Amino acid sequence: MVSFGFSVPLTRWLPRAWSSYNISNTKNGYTRHNIGVNGTLLDDERLSYSLQQSHSNHDGEDTSSVYGTYRSQYANLNASYYASSGSAEQMNYGISGAIVAHPRGVTLAQPLGSQFAIVNANGASGVRFQNQQGIQTDWLGNAVIPSLTPYEENAIRIDTASLPENVESSDTSIRVIPSRNAAVESRFDAHVGYRMLIALTRPGNQRVPFGAIVTSANADLSGIMDDTSTVYLAGVGEPTQLTVKWGKAPDQQCVAHILQQAEGYTESPNGIRSTRALCQQETAYAH
């Protein structure tokens, strides 16, 4: 048999697609021509497809086939259709995936390899990962990276370009080294909330001193007041209580409550919200 083929990228008209042509000759003089288009779609290439058409001069048979695979966060879906001029027709479809039980719950996943990782984004949903088509954290903040290389350092990276606008993460890459046939757990220090510039004033329109330390009630957010009595925080939820300290005395600290009502802030084109809040001593809130 002698065969010849080539492929041509179609990216000028269709992103991440290419066409192919192949011709083969047998020693009996039969010739088969095959032409096809293959590619991937969607932002993380989780949908792949293939269209093929062939013709043989042996019996004049023409065949057509279409195949597609969609990789979702819960499973892989595939479907195919085949037809020939000889009246043969065939359609197939299927779903494949896994159910993983772990200390944080139960997570649906794509088909698993011998080694895999259970990842938690600290409760943040919709977090995607680089080079992992279709995989993102579920409503509990869990995801499964289905395949890892054993006894080697595997990097799991957040796709920061696709982070939901209300999610921030102080780390974007973690590394795991699984043994053979093992599942490993890892966690990103993500926060569900918004990036905010918060201008704080004390009673009497007094500024909060420069350098004051700002922390959230559960200590997962922290920042330092600038010379305009403003602090930048990432991952501010709703509502959030902030404690501000610039000394140890009771009159050298105050508490502010941040709400996310639309009328209470302005938002810049880059997604940073700006708001103002009153910072009072805790006894003032108690009354």
TrEMBL record:
Matches recorded under InterPro entries: Fimb_usher, FimD_plug_dom, PapC-like_C, PapC-like_C_sf
GO cellular component, one term: cell outer membrane
Extent of the signal sequence: none
Domain PapC-like C-terminal span(s) in chain numbering: 197-258
GO biological process entries: pilus assembly
Classification via Gene3D superfamilies: 2.60.40.2070, Outer membrane usher protein FimD, plug domain
A matching Pfam family: Usher
One function term, GO molecular function aspect: fimbrial usher porin activity
PANTHER family (UniProt xref): FIMBRIAL USHER DOMAIN-CONTAINING PROTEIN YDET-RELATED, OUTER MEMBRANE USHER PROTEIN
Protein name per the record: Outer membrane usher protein FimD
Gene name per UniProt: fimD_4
